[in-house]
Amino acid sequence: MDSMITFDQVTKRYPKSDDILHGVSFAIQEGEMVFVTGRSGAGKSTLLKLIAAIERPTHGTVLINNQNVSQIRNAAIPFLRRKFGLIFQDHKLLYDRNCFQNVLLPLSINGITGEEAAKRVRAALDKVGLLSKEKMMPITLSGGEQQRLAIARAVVSRPSILIADEPTGNLDSTYAHDIMRLFKAFHQVGVTVIVAMHDTSNAPFQPDQILHLSQGRLLKNGVSA
Amino acid sequence: MKHWLNQHVQALSLVLGRLKKQWLDTLMICAVIGVTLAIPSLIYVIVDNLNGLVTDVKKDSQISLFLNKSADESSIQNIQQQLTNNPNIKHFTFVSKENALKQLIANSKNSDLIASLDHNPLPDAFFIEPNSIAKQDLQQLQESLLALNGVQDVIVDSEWMNRLQSLLRIGSQAIWIFGGLLCFTLVAVISNTIRMQILTHKDEIEVSELIGATKSFIRRPFLYLGTSFGVIGGVIACFTLWLVTYLFNLNVTKFAQEYQSSFSLHFNVFTTFLGMLAVSASIGWLAAYLAITLKAKTKY
């Protein structure tokens, strides 16, 4: 079976820097739940950026649904990214728009408007427990609620891959467990979920695969115990 | 098609919302655009009207042909015959020196003084209306008339009009240069405003890029913003032009009436306003395009 995401001897180096990732190889199947772990600076964010085609590899091959990221035209990158739901540690919400408008943005980009868009936005907000706060501005929400809002924005366009970069990094354990349970729920309906985190000790469940990075190298690649 | 149209409608409504929200800033930038565009347009209208006036006056211009004082009846008849046969002459009238003196006395405030002169100082004269008012044709006709036997002098009345028309021609060219410079200034001003807007919406652009927005999706609101600045500025320019022309005409019409003229500033409202709106919208679009293109090179 073809993998959904394949890294083959991938090296990433930024100008005037050492290798951030070095010779990384792994494969992720469709519908898997994957944790990417490692200390700060281990290369977790860079790995996620390569999956989301935000960066391109310096050497090696990154395949997303058998598409080689290095060979994709710049104009086609946005269409590839629409297959992903991206969640960031700092949420990257738009603070001049209310919750509803924040979640609406990916649908606007896809040209979905009107009743259909409103229905999908409310469904996404409902899924993360923020339906009653749709008219509130993000700044009035707690850290955990802001992260849930970011998740609603990531899933509203029904992506096949959910990528989260340290989504619980700034949250206390209660909020962190809430967020992780949301990821589990999406995984259970067939979404491929890739979550970068410092360590997995606080995770309320075990993933299908853990990619452990240290100084840009993949130390552990396989099904967790 | 529906998808494409949806995105345009979204971008336009987003921009109109922002313009409404920041109405004072919008009004200020649009007023700058409007007044800047109105200035060369107004000068153009003035020069265009003066050109029309000069052409009209030139059409009415005539050549005055003065005879020698010693010219007798047979010389006059001979000249009259030659004028009749000349194909370059449309029409002419003869005013004898006696009639000229009578008219002078009748029209002069010092009629007693003129009547007391012991001899008639005026010559017999022909007043000629030429077929062509082109400078070269008039010059040729003047030379041919001077060569006639018994002719003392030939004066082309429209000479000063030619000089004025040459000046107006230079003025017209100057307007295009001046207008071009002002358009360049407008592009710079609007472009700078759009750059500020891009900085204000930097987070939105970054997030949109990350979640799959195409370049055209990101550019679209800014292009609409620049074009909106241009269109609203154009409307202000049209109104300014109309208002200034109206106020100007209130005084100019009275002044012209004193000289038995019906001169007033006028222009084709539809084509002028349409042209101004097209130019201002294009300037706004171009400025926004330049701003977003240059900013995209530095990753916003």
Task: Provide a descriptive summary of the structure in words.
The complex is a heterodimer of chains A (225) and B (300). Chain A has six helices and ten strands; from the N terminus they run βββαββαβαααβαβββ. The longest helix of chain A has 16 residues, at 173-188. In chain A, helix 4 packs across helix 5. Chain A is globular. With 225 residues, chain A is of the alpha/beta class. In chain A, strand 7 (161-165), helix 6 and strand 8 (192-197) form a beta-alpha-beta unit. In chain A, the strands form two sheets. Chain A has a six-stranded mixed sheet with strand order 6-7-8-3-9-10, with helices on both faces. Chain B is built from ten helices and four strands. Chain B has helices at residues 2-21, 23-59, 73-85, 97-107, 111-115, 135-146, 159-200, 202-210, 215-258, 269-297; strands at residues 63-67, 89-95, 125-130, 151-156. Chain B has a four-stranded antiparallel sheet with strand order 2-3-1-4. Chain B starts with a helix and ends with a helix. By secondary structure, chain B is α+β, with helices and mostly antiparallel strands. The chains are: A alpha/beta (225), B alpha+beta (300). The A-B interface holds A 52, 54, 75, 78-82, 84, 86, 92-95, 105-106, 108-113, 153-154, 157 and B 2-4, 6-7, 9-10, 203-204, 206-215, 217.
